[in-house]
Each structure stands twice: as structure tokens, then as C-alpha cells.
Amino acid sequence: MLNCAIIGGGPAGLAAGLYATRGGIENVTLFEKGLPGGQITQSSEIENYPGFFDHTKSGMDFMDSWQEQCFHFGLKHQMDEVVNIEKEGENFKINILGKEPQLAKSVIVCTGSTPKKANIKGENEFFGRGVSTCATCDGFFYKNKEVAILGGGDTALEEAYYLSNICSKVYIIHRRDTFRAAPSTIDRVQKKDNIELILNSQIIEIVGDAMGVNGLIIEDVNKNKQKLNVPGIFVFVGNDVNNSVLKQSDGKFLCDTNEYGQIITNLKMHTSVEGLFVAGDMRIDAPKQVICAASDGATAALEVISYLNERS
């Protein structure tokens, strides 16, 4: 039996693994069906994590050293997909796709969130053919071309700035006239010559042909429409919580959630179920920053240590 199962290998999961194993817990396994690292591996640069300010390094570079450090202290990585987690007595059953379940005395869930769709006409049809949610992944395909970004938060503006160094022009389309991003990010975007802001407007349709996207139909607050001829649109309108591993056979969740499916925790990452902890973007009030996710993971691991000591 595992002493601790960690579900999800992003910053929260890796930090949890580091603090759990270095804190003396044996038999700690990180379940991550792909390579550990999380969403941050898709970022073009990291400039807001203390001690890491190398603009030549990407999110993937940033996370490489995390894996090495965590595995050094004994964290095991099991490259399996967890279907869901159930309570079995005072322990937990980890149901794994295509394999026998495993039991664990405690669980830390760090499965994060995924980018939301904007639900625009044509978005699904052209996804992967001009519609993207990852500037780092797809920006190169639009070198010296014009592209658009939908969104008004930190991610949207940061990725717009990144694309402005690749593309001839970047349009930021936002339904309001103010942004939700950090003031320094807004200032940097506003000073970039090849970034144009289209505010108080929304995209009502993504249009194209067999070759992919070739334009956007935009409508302003006065219902005036225009077509913006661009071959690519990057959508950054928030995230959906990846909470499926906590869903039970009756459709309910193993622990308490809010109306958005975010997991209700206290400041120590405790859920409503004893021995079950949640860290990172999937919890309520998560700031959705790498440093905060790592802090959550460390906090959860320290609580697991206390929990297991009380059980022994």
C-alpha cells in the first residue's frame, strides 16, 4: 500500500512529491500519464518566479530541474491514467485505466485545469487548423503573419507579447475596455508597436475554408460588424477544473466542491474528506500561478506527514 498517492505532475504535484519524500515518507508515487511538468511547460518564458529570470529559457526548461530534484529524493513516477479515486474504509482506492487498483493511505490531487473554449461558431471546426490555445506550440506557424488573440487576462497579454516577436502583427480582442492582467504586463503590451487592441468587442464567428482559418467576424458594443483577415486565432478565456478523478459512480464528487466544480479546501489544503488533500489550480480561490501551486503542494505534503504520523 502506498503511504501517499499524488495525482497530477504539474508544479503542485512535483512540489508535493519533493516535500513528502524529503520529509521522510516512503512509498510515495506520482501518477501522471505524461511527462511531469504541467501547463507551464507550454509557456514561452518565465519572469515572475523568484530566482528564475532567464528570458532564453522556456517553461519546459524551467520544469526540467524540478523533476530531477524530486526523483532524487525517492519520488516514483507511474505513467498511468487515474480514472477516479474512491474511499475504502480509512484508505483510498486509486482506480487506474487498464490496470488493477492501488490502495493509498493518503492522496494529494493536483490535476489542475485546462483552457476553456470560447464557444464561438467555427471554433471546434477549425481547432488545430488556425484555432489554438498554445502560443508556444503554434506561434512559429504564423511567423511574419498577422494573428489575433481573444482574452484580457495575464495569459492572453503575455502570449500576445510573445507572438509579437514572431508575427508581423497581433490583434488583442477583448469584450471590455480594461484588462485583468498585471499592470506591468499591460504596459508592456501597450508599448509594443505591432500589437493592436480591439476593445469592447467580441468574436461572433471564426471563418475559413479547407485550408483553415482565414478570418474573424467581430462585433462591437454597438452591433457594428467587421471582418478581420487573419490566418490564426489564439483563445485565452480561462480554464476548466480537471476534477473528473474525484467523481464517483453516482455522479457526485468524493469531497465538497463549489458551483464551478472547484474543490473546497482550507488554507492547509484539507478537503471535506479526511486524508484527501487538493493543491493547485483546481482548488477554490487558486491564483493560478506557478509559485502558488508549488506552495499548495508543499503545504499539502506537510499536512500528509502530520496525518500519517497521527495514524501510526
UniProtKB/TrEMBL annotation:
Gene Ontology cellular-component annotations: cytoplasm
Q: What class of enzyme is it?
A: oxidoreductase
List the catalysed reactions: [thioredoxin]-dithiol + NADP(+) = [thioredoxin]-disulfide + NADPH + H(+)
Q: How is the cofactor bound?
A: Binds 1 FAD per subunit.
Task: State if Metal-binding is listed as a keyword.
Answer: no
Q: Which Enzyme Commission number(s) are listed? A: 1.8.1.9
Q: Which InterPro entries match?
A: FAD/NAD-bd_sf, FAD/NAD-binding_dom, Ferredoxin-NADP_redctase_2, Pyr_nucl-diS_OxRdtase_2_AS, Thioredox_Rdtase
Q: Which GO terms describe its biological process?
A: removal of superoxide radicals
Which cofactor is recorded for it?
FAD
List keywords of the entry alphabetically: Disulfide bond, FAD, Flavoprotein, NADP, Oxidoreductase, Redox-active center
Known partners and oligomeric status:
Homodimer.
**Family of the protein in this entry:** Belongs to the class-II pyridine nucleotide-disulfide oxidoreductase family.
The record's section on NCBIfam families has: TRX_reduct (TIGR01292)
Name of the featured protein: Thioredoxin reductase
**What is the organism field in this record?**
Sulfurovum sp. enrichment culture clone C5
